[in-house]
Amino acid sequence: MSVVSKNIDHTTPQLRHVVIFKFKGSSKPKDVQKVSKAFAALYGKVSQIKKFEWGINSSREKFNEDFTHCFILTFSSEKDLADYQINPAHIKFQTVLKPHMEKVFVVDYWVK
Fold first, then answer.
1. pTM: predicted TM-score of the whole model, two decimal places
2. Which of 40, 52, 67, 102 is 20 to 30 A from 1 in CA distance terms?
3. What is the dihedral of CA 76, 38, 31, 85, to 10 degrees?
């Protein structure tokens, strides 16, 4: 797992954007690694991302339904999340992702 963060005020509510991928069976490990690196590279390119972490599923419970990679991004507001989603760097990332993504699961939630 990788965690990257800027100085964050932990008393202010933060918006977590959780993205979990199921990759196509035809995608090679190097392709999945390329996608993961490209996603991680958004941190630093997209100023709205306050914190970024990711990891590969290691649960023994086997409830992941072949979803393997989890990415958690932290934003200060819903507007920041919306701006991230239309950011050219995010749109470019999607061109790297789409040939390899079979399915995606997304959850957004607020924390203090």
1. 0.88
2. 102
3. 50
Q: How confident is the model at residue 29 (pLDDT cuts 50, 70, 90)?
A: very high
Q: What domains can be seen in the chain, in order of their start residue?
A: 2-111 (3.30.70.100)
How far is it, in rounded angstroms, from Cα 34 to Cα 65? 22
3 state SS for 39-94: HHCCECCECCCCEEEEEECCCCCCCCCCCCEEEEEEECCHHHHHHHHCCHHHHHHH
State how far the Cα of 76 lies from the Cα of 82, in Å rounded to an integer.
11
Phi (first) and psi of residue 90, to 5 degrees: -70, -40
**pLDDT of amino acid 1:** 44
The one-letter amino acid code at 56 reads I
Hey, what are 66's tokens? 């072949």
- Say which residue the tokens 């990679």 belong to: 69
Rounded to the nearest angstrom, the gap between the alpha carbon of residue 34 and the centroid of all alpha carbons in its chain is 14
Strand order in the sheet with 2-5: 2-5, 51-56, 69-75, 14-23, 101-111
